[in-house]
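Try this one yourself first.
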C-alpha cells in the first residue's frame, strides 16, 4: 500500500475538477436541504409532543386537585359523622343511666318496709274478710 500525501489525486480523463467540485457541492446542498427538512419535521413533532405532554400534565394536575378536594370533603364529612356518633353514644349512656335509675326506683318502691305485709297481718285480714261475709 502506497500513501502519497500531498499529491493531487489522479484525474479521470475527460472530467473537469471544477465541474466535479460543483456537482459534489450541489449533492451536499441537496443532502443538507433534506437534513434541514427532516430537522424541521422533527422540531414540529417535538413541539406537538411537548404540547400534548403539557396538556396531559395540566389535566393530571386538575384531577389531582379535584381528588384532593374530594378527600378533604370526605374527611370533613367523616369528622361530622364521628361527632354525631359521639353525641349519640353520650345520649345512649344518659338514657341507660336514666333507665337504670327508674328500675332502681321501682325496686325501692316495691321493697319499702311500709309496703311489706307480715304473715300475721294477712291472717288478720283474711279473718276479717271471712267475718264480714258471715
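Now uncover the answer:
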Amino acid at each position: 500500500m502506497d500513501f502519497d500525501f500531498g499529491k493531487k489525486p489522479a484525474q479521470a480523463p475527460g472530467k473537469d475538477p471544477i465541474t466535479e467540485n460543483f456537482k459534489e457541492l450541489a449533492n451536499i446542498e441537496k443532502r443538507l436541504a433534506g437534513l434541514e427538512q427532516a430537522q424541521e419535521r422533527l422540531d414540529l413533532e417535538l413541539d406537538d409532543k411537548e404540547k400534548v405532554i403539557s396538556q396531559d400534565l395540566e389535566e393530571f394536575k386538575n384531577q389531582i386537585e379535584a381528588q384532593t378536594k374530594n378527600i378533604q370533603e370526605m374527611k370533613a364529612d367523616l369528622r361530622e359523622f364521628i361527632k354525631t356518633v359521639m353525641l349519640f353514644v353520650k345520649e345512649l349512656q344518659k338514657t341507660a343511666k336514666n333507665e337504670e335509675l327508674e328500675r332502681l326506683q321501682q325496686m325501692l318502691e316495691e321493697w319499702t318496709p311500709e309496703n311489706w305485709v307480715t304473715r300475721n297481718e294477712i291472717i288478720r285480714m283474711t279473718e276479717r274478710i271471712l267475718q264480714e261475709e258471715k
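Discussion: The radius of gyration is 55 Å. The chain has a mean pLDDT of 84.
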